[in-house]
Design goal:
single chain; 237 residues; alpha/beta; Rossmann fold
Length: 237
Amino acid sequence: MTLPPQLQRRLHPVSSGWDPVSKDYALEYEVGEWRQDSDIRETLGFIEARCGGFAGKRVLDLGGGPGQYSVSMAQRGARVTWHDPSRIYEGLTRAHAAAAGVQLTFNLGYLEDAASLKPESFDIVFNRICWYYCANDRAFARLIWSLLAPGGTAYLNLPVDSFRPRPSVRHRFAIWLNRHLGVKIAYTHPPRGRVPGLFAQLGPVELWLSTRDEHIEILLATKPLAVRPAAEPGGRR
């Protein structure tokens, strides 16, 4: 039985050598994800159009998996930090990065362990598909916000809790708890509208939201640039 996310992180720290992903699954998933060239190009082209390109940008691939987006963003000129709890995925990503001739920074840990990274140090935080692995939606939104530099943008691909086609009775109960009480006893996707609402509560923020797919929300959340203090009388600041 899969442990609740809070217990998983506490009982199986990645520093102990624990890997939440089996080698067989990782290899199968890697092949499927790296074949999706058109999806990668479309997603990164969409972000480039709204963020002024990747060249010179500091990017955090938060939940980087087998590294297809980390490597592709680095090929477009970004300085990419890959973050994920799986050593198997890390090894696969290192191999792909070497083959592509790009350099990545690697940070191993659960999603919440990204708190060890320097605050306000990323121009783009990229989180695709894997939001539901976090232990608490509100806390995770705050973490992402804290990692964004002024003017930085979070790109979030968010399957919502209707995403799973035929959930078990246990999972339906877990969805109900998360939707109505905000309690996660399993890896449940957030309800529609929750994550955009959480970012809207974090302060002045520019939000762009697509709901073309009834089971997935695409969200861009842009942090405002730092506001300069008003000038004092006489021209002093």
